[in-house]
Amino acid sequence: MEKKLNPAELKLDSLAVHGNMGHDGHAHAVSFPIYQTATYINTNFGHDIDFSYSRCANPTRDELEKTVALLEGAKYGFAFSSGLAAETALFSTLSKGDHVVIGDDVYGGTYRLSRDTFPRYGVEFTVVDFSYPEKVEAAITPATKYLYVETPTNPMMKVCDIAAIAEIAKKHSVKLVVDNTFMTPVFQKPLSLGADVVIHSGTKYLAGHNDTMAGFLLTSDEDIRTAVAFNRNTEGAALAPFDSWLVLRGIKTLTLRMRKHHENAVKVAQWLTNCKAVDKVFFIGLDSHPSKAIIDKQCTGYGGMLSFTLKDTSKVRHALCDYKMIMFAESLGGVQTLITYPLTQTHASIPKEVRDSIGITENLLRLSVGIEDAEDIIADLASVLEDC
Ligand SMILES: *Cc1c(COP(=O)(O)O)cnc(C)c1O
């Protein structure tokens, strides 16, 4: 019996499980197959065919792209070999003389693209704290093409008002790009708030298991779609079939995982707030967060990311390395709880004076709260932090 799935009628939990087609139309396999092929037989001489070469299109990647586009409420989705490959395809839609206003607390690799790579081709960037919409507006010039923002930011968990920034973008005819890696479409839908493009490091929550790299660009904007499709095909960083399948598989449990990350992070943040060794806790689920009203308005959950500072900087090594379960490692968004040292890991490429101005200090640690039992996470933290 042919299944007639209409993704438009499904709620997010069901969409995540069933994806775009939900099954393979050829052999009716329940698990969408990995089309591990580089090329395809041309069955229609003289006419365009859907699949000709896997850099251009691959059925497994197609299913994944359409699935992530559905989750974000976008018409079009592109899957890349990493988040930075997606960002590169986006920024290479720009030309010499074009200008971007970018957040001051973006991912380290994004910062490198904006400071080292694209300025060499004549694309200019102005760095702004997007928590102040008036500063964003003041930075826009006639050459500005994109406003580029992460919310919440990494690692300081600053939040900006996507709808307010989107209004500024529309007023000045520039496009708003939101990196939605931390929240995922489960907790935040930037396109529905007026953004034009969503970027993901699919390596993080979407794949969710710390076992593959991926990146996404989602949009309903026809011009951006055309330019990004050209760049992806030309630069060649499309996601491989097996990795596409791993992300598709990960997404089936995305909504469940996100709820558990959220629940655990709320408990861990509460515990850290009362921990004597800890100075400040940065988490969007705290009532004391300076942007609480915006968070309540645009997010339906808090995710699993938080940062905190230790009172005693000399205890940093102990507070990173001596857990039984929690792992000292880069990256985030997977099922395992990871602790990261932004200063020497994720944000090492950011100059010291910029790091200091953002708050990435020697005593700042970042936690990606996993989906283990919250009591085990807290017991592990307590075993180390109670003697820091
Ligand atoms: C990891 C990350 C990126 C970069 O993605 P990669 O998959 O590592 O290339 C971009 N933005 C955010 C918020 C990230 O956490």
How is the secondary structure organized here?
Layout: H1 12-18, H2 59-72, E1 76-80, H3 83-91, E2 99-103, H4 108-117, E3 124-128, H5 133-139, E4 144-150, H6 162-171, E5 175-179, H7 184-187, E6 197-201, E7 215-219, H8 222-235, H9 241-251, H10 254-273, E8 278-282, H11 292-298, E9 305-310, H12 316-321, E10 327-328, E11 338-340, H13 352-358, E12 364-368, H14 374-385
Parallel strand pairs: 2-3, 2-4, 4-5, 5-6, 10-11
Antiparallel strand pairs: 1-7, 6-7, 8-9, 9-12, 11-12
Helix pairs in contact: 1-2, 2-9
Bound molecules: pyridoxal-5'-phosphate.
What would you say this structure looks like, in words?
- This protein has helices at 12-18, 59-72, 83-91, 108-117, 133-139, 162-171, 184-187, 222-235, 241-251, 254-273, 292-298, 316-321, 352-358, 374-385, and strands at 76-80, 99-103, 124-128, 144-150, 175-179, 197-201, 215-219, 278-282, 305-310, 327-328, 338-340, 364-368.
- It is an alpha/beta fold.
- The longest helix is centred in the last third of the chain and has 20 residues, at 254-273.
- The radius of gyration is 21 Å and the shape is globular.
- The mean pLDDT is 95.
- Bound molecules: pyridoxal-5'-phosphate.
- Residues 82-84, 107, 109-110, 150, 154, 179, 181, 201, 203-204, 213, 215 line the site of pyridoxal-5'-phosphate.
- Pyridoxal-5'-phosphate binds at residues 82-84, 107, 109-110, 150, 154, 179, 181, 201, 203-204, 213, 215.
